[in-house]
Design goal:
alpha/beta
C-alpha cells in the first residue's frame, strides 16, 4: 500500500477494512501461477470462491492449485507496487523530507528531555518531600478524626442501646402490669364462678338430700317422687306428673340399641310391662346373642330349651358359662344351626356325648370355649371332623384329654383355620403334645398358656417349629420358661408378650426383643425379678411400643427409666405400669412428663420415694386419664396439684396414710368427671370424704373405702342419694356400717353389680343374703378385721404394743400350722 500513503485516510481505511490488497494479492498469485486461458472466467470463479469462504479465511495462496503451493513464494509488497504501476521510484522526496524531519525532531526531543530531567531533578525531590509531608499530615488528621468519630459513634450507640433497654423495660413493665391486672380479674372471675358452681352444687346436694330423706320417711317409691337436680332447684316450675313417654315412639334402631344393654332377665321383665314392650322385646335382632351366665344360680333348663327352640334360627352367640344345666338341655343347642360362638366353660354337665350332638347340629361354630369341663379325647376327635371353620378354641383347665387327643386335631380337614388357642392349666400336655399342636394348627396367632408349671423351653421350641405366625404369647405361671424360649420365638413376628412370676428371665431376653420384634406393641413382664435397668435400655428403640408393664421388677431405677424414655419409644407410649419399683423417685416423674405426651395410664403403686414435688409434673401430661399412687408418701398437697388436671377419671390412693378429708375435698372440686376412686386403708378419712364425692363426683362408678373405720351409715346415705351410677363398691373393714345401708343402696344405687363387705361386724347375715340376690357378685364376712387393718372391731386404732403382740401371735399361729403340716407329711 505504498502508493496509497499520500491518499486520504478514509480511502486507506476503506482498502484496509474490505481486504482489497489481500484479495488482489490472492487473485494475482493465482493468475501468475495458473496462467488460465480465460483470465476473466478464472477471476469470476475465484471471486465466488472467496465470497463463499469469507474474507476472514482469505490467504494469499487461496487461488493456487494445492499441488504447486510449496514451490511458490508469497508476493512481497514490492511486487504489488509493481503490479499497481508504482515501481518507478520507491523513495520519493516527500518521504525523504518527512524522514529527516522525524529524525531531527526525535533527536531534539531526546536531548531536551535529558536536560529537563537533569535540571529539574533537585526541584522534583523537594516537591515530592513536600507532597509526602502534606499527605502524612492529612493522613494523621484523618486518623484523629476517625478515632474521635468512632468514640462518638460508640457513645451514641451505647446511649441508644440504653434508651432501647429502658424503653423495653417500660413496655415490659407496662405489659406485666396489664397482664397482672388481666390475670387478677380473670382469677377473681374464675374464683367467683367456682364459688358459684360450688354453691350451686351444694344447693343441689342439700335439696336432693332433703327430698331423699323426705322420700325415705314417706316410704314412696323412687318413680313416684324422684325429681332431677334441675327440677329441684326451682319451685316455680311445677312438675307435670301426668306426662308419660312411650318408648315405642322412638326409632327402631334406637329401641334396639337400648334393649341391647339389657340382660336376658331384664328382657323378660320388660316383656311383662305392656303389650307394646313385649312386641319390642320379641325383635329377632335382640336374640342374636343370648347370655345365660347371668342366671347361672337358677334352675333354667326349661327356660333354655324353650328359648333356643323359639329363636334357633336367629341365635349366633350363646354363653352358658358356669350354668348348672342338664346334659339333655345342652343337647338342645344343636337346634341352633347358625350358631357361631359357644361358651360352655365351667359347665360340669358337659360331656363328650353332648359335644357330639352340638358338633353335628352346629357345624358353623367359629368360637368355642370348653374351659374347665370334663371333655376327653373323644371330643378332640370331633373338633376337626365337624368344626371346619373353627378359629378360636379354649381348652383351659381341661385335664382329661391327652397328647393323643391333640394329635386328633389333624384328622380330616383338620383345624388349620385355628388362630386362637388357650391351654392354660393343662399340665398333662408334654413336649410331644405341643409337637402335635404344631402339626395340626400351624396358623395359630394367639397362644395363651397360664398356670402351667410343666411348660418348658422345649415345649415352646416344639410349637414354634411350624407355628411361625404367632403374634401374641401369654405365659402366666410358667416358672420354667427362660431366655431360650425368647430365642426360639425369634422366628415369629410377636406384637404382644405377657409373662408373670418368672425368675429365670433376664435382661438377655430383651436383646432378642430389640433385634427380632421391632413391631411389638405390648410387653407385660410382671414380677420378673431378673430384669434390671439394662432391659429398659434395650427397649428404648421400639417405635411401636404402646403398653409396658414391669410391675414388681424391683431392680429397675431412675437411670434405666431415663435411658428408656430418651429413645423414640416414649412418643407412642400409652400405658406404663411400674408398680412396686421401689427405687423410682421424683426424677422419673419429671422424665415421664417431658417424654410421654400421649400417656393415658400410669401406675406407680408402692414407689415410696415419690413426693409432692414430683407429683406436680404429672399435671403437664394432658392426656393422662388414670393414675395409681397407692402406697406412696404423698399428702394433701399432691391432691391439690392433681385437682388442676381436670381430666382424671381414675385415681387410686390406697394406703396413703397422709391423706385426709381436706385433700379429698380439694381434689373432688376439680375432678367432676371422676369415675373410679380408691382410698382404701386411709384411716384418717371420714364421712366428709363421701360427702365430697357425692357433691362433686356424681358420675363415679367404682368406689373403694375398705379399711376406713370412720365411715358411717350417713356417708352411705349421701352416696346413695347422689351417685346413682355406682357399679362397684368396696366397704370392707368399715366396722361402723349397719343394715341400714342396704335400704339406701337399693333405692339409690340400682346399677350396683359388685359389693364387698368383708369384716363388717354390724351387718347381719340375713341382710347380706337378701342383698346378694340384687347384685352379681358379693363378698361378706362378719368377723373382726385382721390385725394388719390396724384397728379392732370397734374401729379403734391399735397401739404399738398391741400391734407387736398381734404380730407375734400371728407368727406363732403360722409356725404351728407349718409344723402340723410337716407332721402330716411325715
Amino acid at each position: 500500500m505504498a502508493s496509497l500513503r499520500s491518499a486520504k485516510p478514509w480511502l486507506r481505511n476503506y482498502f484496509k477494512e474490505n481486504y482489497i490488497p489481500q484479495v488482489c494479492e490472492a487473485l494475482l498469485c493465482g493468475l501468475l501461477v495458473s496462467c488460465p486461458e480465460d483470465p476473466l472466467d478464472y477471476l469470476e470463479v475465484m471471486i465466488k470462491h472467496i465470497m463463499e469462504s469469507g474474507l476472514e479465511r482469505l490467504f494469499w495462496d487461496m487461488c493456487i492449485d494445492p499441488a504447486v503451493k510449496p514451490s511458490i513464494r508469497r508476493l512481497s509488497e514490492t511486487y504489488l507496487e509493481q503490479l499497481f504501476g508504482l515501481d518507478d521510484q520507491l523513495m520519493t522526496p516527500e518521504l525523504m523530507t518527512k524522514a529527516c524531519s522525524f529524525y531531527t525532531g526525535n533527536l531534539v526531543k531526546t536531548f531536551f528531555s535529558i536536560w529537563k530531567h537533569a535540571t529539574l531533578l533537585h526541584e522534583s525531590e523537594n516537591e515530592v518531600t513536600v507532597q509526602k509531608m502534606a499527605k502524612a499530615e492529612k493522613h494523621y488528621n484523618l486518623r484523629l478524626q476517625r478515632g474521635v468519630l468512632c468514640n462518638w459513634h460508640l457513645h451514641v450507640e451505647q446511649q441508644q442501646q440504653k434508651l432501647t433497654e429502658i424503653l423495653l423495660k417500660i413496655k415490659e413493665t407496662f405489659h406485666n402490669h396489664k397482664l397482672r391486672k388481666t390475670l387478677t380479674k380473670w382469677r377473681d372471675k374464675a374464683r367467683r364462678k367456682n364459688k358459684e358452681r360450688e354453691d350451686d352444687l351444694l344447693l343441689k346436694h342439700e335439696i336432693l338430700l332433703k327430698k331423699w330423706k323426705i322420700r325415705s320417711k314417706s316410704k314412696l317409691t323412687p318413680g313416684e317422687y324422684f325429681m332431677s337436680s334441675e327440677e329441684s332447684l326451682s319451685e316455680s316450675y311445677p312438675r307435670d306428673r301426668s306426662f308419660q313417654f312411650d318408648i315405642s315412639l322412638l326409632p327402631l334402631k334406637a329401641i334396639l340399641q337400648i334393649f341391647h344393654y339389657l340382660s336376658i332377665r331384664d328382657l323378660a321383665t320388660c316383656s311383662q310391662v305392656r303389650h307394646s314392650w313385649m312386641s319390642m322385646t320379641q325383635r329377632s335382632a335382640l336374640w342374636n346373642a343370648i347370655d345365660f351366665s347371668t342366671l347361672k344360680h337358677m334352675a333354667i333348663d326349661k327356660y333354655v330349651v324353650m328359648t333356643l327352640q323359639r329363636w334357633r334360627l336367629n341365635v349366633l352367640r350363646l354363653n352358658f358359662r358356669g350354668c348348672l344345666l342338664k346334659p339333655k338341655t345342652l343337647r338342645s343347642v344343636s337346634h341352633c344351626r347358625n350358631l357361631q360362638e359357644l361358651n360352655v366353660s365351667d359347665c360340669s354337665a358337659l360331656t363328650d356325648e353332648s359335644m357330639k350332638h352340638i358338633s353335628e347340629g352346629c357345624p358353623g361354630i367359629l368360637y368355642l370355649n370348653l374351659s374347665n369341663t370334663g371333655i376327653t379325647n373323644r371330643t378332640m376327635r370331633l373338633l376337626p371332623r365337624n368344626f371346619h371353620n373353627l378359629q378360636n378354641l379354649s381348652l383351659a383347665y381341661c385335664k382329661k384329654f391327652t397328647d393323643k387327643g391333640l394329635q386328633y386335631l389333624n384328622l380330616g380337614n383338620g383345624c388349620h383355620k385355628l388362630t386362637y388357642l388357650d391351654l392354660s392349666g393343662c399340665t398333662q400336655i408334654s413336649v410331644q403334645g405341643f409337637r402335635n399342636i404344631a402339626n395340626s394348627c400351624s396358623g395359630i396367632t394367639h397362644l395363651t398358656i397360664n398356670d402351667m408349671p410343666t411348660l418348658t423351653d422345649n415345649c415352646v421350641k416344639a410349637l414354634v417349629e411350624k407355628c411361625s405366625h404367632i403374634t401374641t404369647v401369654i405365659f402366666i405361671g410358667a416358672p420354667h420358661i427362660s431366655d431360650c424360649a425368647f430365642k426360639a420365638l425369634s422366628t415369629c413376628s410377636l406384637r404382644k408378650i405377657r409373662f408373670e412370676g418368672n425368675k429365670r428371665i433376664t435382661d438377655s431376653c430383651f436383646k432378642f426383643i430389640d433385634k427380632h420384634y421391632p413391631n411389638i406393641r405390648h410387653i407385660y413382664m410382671v414380677d420378673c425379678k431378673g430384669l434390671t435397668d439394662g432391659s429398659l435400655k434395650s427397649l428404648s428403640v421400639l417405635r411401636q411400643l404402646t403398653v409396658l408393664n414391669l410391675g414388681n421388677c424391683i431392680s429397675i431405677g431412675d437411670e434405666g427409666l431415663r435411658q428408656f424414655l430418651d429413645g423414640p419409644v416414649s412418643i407412642k407410649m400409652r400405658e406404663l405400669n411400674l408398680s412396686n419399683c421401689i427405687h423410682l423417685g421424683d426424677t422419673s416423674l419429671v422424665k415421664i412428663s417431658e417424654r410421654c405426651p400421649n400417656l393415658t395410664y400410669l401406675n406407680l403403686r408402692n414407689c415410696e420415694h415419690l413426693s409432692d414435688t414430683g407429683i406436680e409434673h404429672l399435671v403437664s401430661i394432658h392426656s393422662l386419664v388414670s393414675v395409681d399412687l397407692s402406697g406412696t408418701a404423698i399428702s394433701n398437697q399432691s391432691l391439690g396439684i392433681l385437682s388442676r388436671h381436670k381430666k382424671l377419671k381414675e385415681l387410686s390412693l390406697s394406703e396413703c396414710y397422709k391423706i385426709t378429708d381436706t385433700g379429698i375435698q380439694t381434689f373432688c372440686k376439680g375432678s367432676l368427671i371422676l369415675e373410679h376412686l380408691d382410698v382404701s386403708f386411709c384411716p384418717q378419712l371420714s364421712d366428709e370424704t363421701i360427702k365430697a364425692v357425692a357433691i362433686y363426683c356424681v358420675s363415679i362408678t367404682s368406689l373403694s373405702i375398705a379399711g376406713c373405720p370412720k365411715i358411717t351409715d350417713v356417708a352411705m346415705e349421701l352416696l346413695s342419694a347422689k351417685c346413682h351410677y355406682v357399679h362397684i363398691l368396696d366397704i370392707s373393714g368399715c366396722v361402723l356400717l349397719t343394715d341400714q345401708i342396704f335400704e339406701n343402696l337399693q333405692r339409690g344405687c340400682k346399677q350396683l353389680r359388685i359389693l364387698k363387705m368383708q369384716y363388717c361386724k354390724q351387718i347381719s347375715k340375713e341382710a347380706a343374703l337378701k342383698m346378694s340376690t340384687l347384685v352379681q357378685q358379693q363378698e361378706y364376712n362378719p368377723e373382726d378385721p385382721p390385725y394388719w387393718f390396724g384397728y379392732d372391731g370397734e374401729g379403734k386404732q391399735f397401739t404399738e404394743q398391741q400391734k407387736k403382740t398381734t404380730t407375734d401371735n400371728s407368727e406363732l399361729i403360722l409356725k404351728d400350722s407349718f409344723g402340723s403340716s410337716e407332721e402330716e407329711i411325715t
